[in-house]
Each structure stands twice: as C-alpha cells, then as structure tokens.
C-alpha cells in the first residue's frame, strides 16, 4: 500500500459508537486522519469545517440514513466520494446506491484489507491521496478555506489531466487567470508555455495578427514573420480571457484552431500545425451574447466542454481574513513597512463589506491601507475611508501605470503610423529607450504602419 499523507481527513458516520471506534482505529493505523459523526445531520454540519477527502457512512441509521446523507453530499459537494457500509440483507439497496453515484459499498462484517483498498481507490479518484496530491504547488497562489472554492479546485485538478477545453465563469476580480494557470500547472503540459491573452485589451485591428501571426509582406510594415500568440503556446496552454469581447470574424478562425488543430497566419495560404489546450474565461453572459448574435454558438460549445464557476468574494467571506493577512505580508515587504494586521473592528468591517470588485478590490484596499497607515495595526477609520473611496474602480498603482503607459505608446504609434523615431521625439525619449518601452509592452510598430489600398 502507498504511503498516505496524514493531512487528508476521512469522515466516518455511524450511530454505533463501537463501530466508529473500530473503524477509526483501523484507518488511523493505516496513516489516515479520522473524524467521526454520530448521525447524518452531524456529518453535514461538520463537513465545511473538517473538509474531508472521503466519507464512510453506515446505511442504516436513525434519523437521516446513509442514502439520505449521500444525496445531500452529492448536491453540496459533488466530487466528495462516499463509501457506504451495509449488512448482507441490504445488498440490493447498496447496488442501487452505486448506480446513483456512491463510490462503493462494503458489507458488514468487513475485511480490513478490502476496506483499505476501497479507501485508497476513492482517494485516488478524488485527488485526495498523498501519492497524488502530496503538495499543493499547482494551486499555490490560490488561497482559500471556502468549501465552494475548494470544490472548484477539486474539479480543476480532475479536469487538468485531460485535454478538454475549460471555460471559467466568474465576475471581474475573482481570479480567473490564477485558476487557468492552476489547471495548466496540474496538467501534463506543465513544462510547456502558458500564454495569457486578454481579448478585450488588444485593439480589434491588431488582435488577428497578435493571435494568429502574420507573414512577412502580409501588409505594409510586416517586415518579418510573426508567429502569433497561439503558436507561441504550442505544446502548452492558451488562456483567452474576456473571450466574449472577441470579434465574430476572429471567432471563426479560433474555431478552426480548435477543430483542425492548425492556424493560418495573416498573409499565408498554408496552415501551420499547432497543439494547444484552450482555457477561456469571461465575466459576460455568453448565452445572452449568443442570443444577440455576438457570439458563435458552435464556438461556445467547443470552448465550454468543462465549466468552472468561480464564486465571488461575497460568497467566500471566510477567506477574507486569510487573504488580507497574505496581502499584508506581501505589501509590507514591498513598501518596507512594519504592518502586522488590521484592528478587530477593521477586520469585521472588511468581512461584512459588499466587495463588488472581488479579490482585486480587496487587494487594492489593503495596499492603500498599508501605504497610508502610520501604525503597525491598521485602524477601522482607515478602512472606512478606503471603502468610501470606492476602491472597486481604483486599480493598483502598478496596474494603472502599466495601462496608461501602454495606451500612451499605442496612441503615439497610431499618430506616427509606426514611425519609431518620430514617436520617440514626441515622447521626448531617445530611440533606444523608446524601443525598450515598446518591447516591455510587446508592441510591434510595423502593425501601425498605414496599410496601402
């Protein structure tokens, strides 16, 4: 039997104290951490706190029986495996239960080795075994103790092993790119490129060339071949954020990439083979976009093979203190300030705030508070002022500077039609420094040269 990490918890549910004790002893001897519940109702109440990797329950119990508990678990935690223990006379019930989704059943009296084998199999399927999930490096940047969020992460870990396209739904600021990167990290493609593209941040006139590349001479200013972002993700994962902003004309080309696994650069008659796994995301309602004729239905179903729904920060309030402390540690180092935390009333205000801007808004508020505080403990008055300032629309300073710089450079290139020397003069920068700025923002001046009719 493989070694098991003891941080994986098994919840045993039975109204017989003797059986609870016997099962606990056998599983603990095998290296598992065990929690117990004397009823189905008690088990349901304890699952959010315990966060078990597996539930083992007796079929016949007073009050909620094992099947009733399973149905509740399946509705709330669909990826949490359940093993049911049953007497010989209830085998037909157990067979029916397995058809409904119960992982397995064991008859009493049970054989210890058979029990341990079933437990190990269930944990391997759920991603809860020590061998398969000995560390959380793949999702290290996603901090949560929320059951709904952990359910999303469990599904992400399971789908990562496949080649299926993944569609991430979530409000702005919920961490869609972080989840996409986590799926990539947990997949067999982890050693290959992860390329993230915000479809709404690239001007429509440039998006086709940026995504699919172009050939030398395809248009005025195309002085060399450019492989494009799809090809640059070859062998790895392409994350298309705000896919709902992609123009219809480019949706057709993206569909071809998914169907034929090849891309045709602008100005080329020959397709180029490409092997990419597509993960896409949007905060838009794409069904509404399809009904309005702004998004192709065939592309939607190609992208939406597996759907992951990110909860808003308001739905995972227990994560706010954990996230806040994580941000404080980062920002204290960044700004070289000794900040140890928020006052109790300040933290209570943070936990109860509406957070329309989600985690991005929370980060911005913590950053503002760290910058402005004159004491190690951030006061409630400072939090109140930050919340009144409507930080949901206030980007972090670095993000604001980057966005302004990019937009400024694009405007210069548009005005000068891609003439770098002229653009550098207008910006009062030398040509070498200006080229460095363009490279930092991955801007190609040739794309801005006027296309001849």
Structural Rg: 27 Å
Number of helical segments with 4 or more residues:
19
User: Class by helix and strand content?
Assistant: alpha/beta
What percent of residues are in strands? 5-15%
Q: How many beta-strand runs?
A: 14
CATH class of the largest domain: Alpha Beta
Distance between the termini: 71 Å
What would the average pLDDT be, to the nearest integer? 83
Total domain modules = 4
Strand order of the largest sheet: 2-1-3-4-5
Largest sheet: 5 strands, parallel
Question: What CATH architecture of the largest domain would you give?
Answer: 3-Layer(aba) Sandwich
Poorly predicted sequence stretches spanning 5 or more consecutive residues:
1-6, 128-134
General form = globular
CATH topology of the largest domain: Rossmann fold
Topology:
Elements: E1 9-13, H1 17-29, E2 33-37, H2 40-50, E3 54-58, H3 66-76, E4 82-87, H4 91-100, E5 104-108, H5 112-126, H6 147-160, E6 166-169, H7 176-185, E7 194-198, H8 204-212, H9 228-232, E8 237-241, H10 248-260, E9 262-263, E10 272-273, E11 277-282, H11 286-291, H12 297-303, E12 306-309, H13 320-335, E13 341-342, H14 344-352, H15 358-372, E14 377-378, H16 380-388, H17 397-416, H18 420-427, H19 431-440
Parallel strand pairs: 1-2, 1-3, 3-4, 4-5, 6-11, 6-12, 7-8, 8-11, 13-14
Antiparallel strand pairs: 9-10
Helix pairs in contact: 2-3, 6-7, 10-12, 13-15, 14-16, 15-16, 17-18, 18-19
Structure description:
The chain has 453 residues and is an alpha/beta fold. 47% of the residues lie in helices and 13% in strands. The chain folds into 4 domains: 9-126, Response regulator (Rossmann fold, 3-Layer(aba) Sandwich); 139-309, Rossmann fold; 313-393, Orthogonal Bundle (Helicase, Ruva Protein, domain 3), CATH 1.10.8; 397-448. The protein has helices at 17-29, 40-50, 66-76, 91-100, 112-126, 147-160, 176-185, 204-212, 228-232, 248-260, 286-291, 297-303, 320-335, 344-352, 358-372, 380-388, 397-416, 420-427, 431-440, and strands spanning 9-13, 33-37, 54-58, 82-87, 104-108, 166-169, 194-198, 237-241, 262-263, 272-273, 277-282, 306-309, 341-342, 377-378. The protein is globular, with a radius of gyration of 27 Å. Mean pLDDT is 83; it is low at 1-6 and 128-134.
């Amino acid at each position: 039997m493989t070694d098991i990490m003891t941080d994986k918890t098994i919840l045993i549910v039975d109204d017989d104290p003797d059986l609870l004790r016997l099962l606990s002893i056998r599983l603990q001897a095998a290296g598992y951490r065990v929690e117990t519940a004397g009823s189905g109702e008690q088990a349901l109440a304890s699952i959010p706190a315990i966060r078990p990797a597996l539930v083992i329950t007796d079929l016949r119990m007073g009050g909620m029986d094992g099947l009733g508990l399973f149905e509740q678990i399946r509705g709330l935690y669909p990826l949490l495996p359940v093993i049911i223990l049953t007497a010989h006379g209830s085998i037909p019930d157990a067979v029916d239960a397995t058809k409904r989704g119960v992982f397995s059943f064991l008859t009493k009296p049970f054989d210890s080795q058979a029990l341990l084998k079933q437990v190990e199999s269930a944990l391997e399927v759920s991603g809860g075994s020590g061998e398969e999930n000995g560390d959380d490096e793949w999702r290290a940047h996603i901090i949560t103790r929320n059951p709904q969020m952990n359910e999303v992460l469990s599904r992400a870990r399971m789908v990562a092993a496949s080649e299926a396209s993944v569609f991430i739904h979530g409000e702005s600021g919920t961490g869609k790119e972080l989840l996409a990167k986590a799926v990539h990290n947990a997949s067999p493609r982890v050693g290959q490129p992860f390329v993230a593209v915000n479809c709404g941040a690239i001007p429509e006139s440039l998006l086709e060339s940026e995504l699919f590349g172009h050939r030398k001479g395809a248009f005025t200013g195309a002085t060399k071949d450019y492989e494009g972002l799809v090809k640059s993700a070859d062998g790895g994962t392409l994350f298309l954020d705000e896919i709902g902003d992609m123009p219809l004309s480019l949706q057709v080309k993206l569909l071809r990439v998914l169907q034929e696994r090849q891309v045709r650069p602008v100005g080329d008659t020959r397709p180029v083979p490409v092997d990419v796994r597509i993960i896409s995301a949007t905060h838009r309602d794409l069904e509404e976009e399809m009904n309005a004729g702004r998004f192709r239905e065939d592309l939607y179903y190609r992208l939406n093979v597996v759907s992951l729904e990110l909860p808003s920060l308001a739905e995972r309030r227990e994560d706010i203190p954990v996230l806040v402390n994580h941000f404080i540690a980062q920002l204290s180092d960044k700004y070289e300030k000794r900040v140890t935390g928020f006052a109790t009333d300040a933290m209570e205000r943070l936990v109860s705030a509406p957070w329309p801007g989600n985690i991005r808004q929370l980060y911005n508020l913590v950053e503002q508070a760290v910058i402005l505080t004159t004491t190690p403990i951030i006061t409630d008055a400072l939090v109140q002022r930050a919340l009144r300032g409507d930080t949901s629309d206030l980007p972090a300073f670095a993000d604001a500077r980057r966005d302004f710089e990019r937009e400024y450079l694009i405007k210069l290139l548009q005005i000068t039609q891609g003439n770098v020397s002229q653009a550098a003069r207008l910006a009062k920068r030398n040509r070498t420094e200006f080229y460095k700025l363009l490279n930092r923002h991955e801007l190609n001046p040739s794309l801005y040269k006027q296309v001849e009719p």
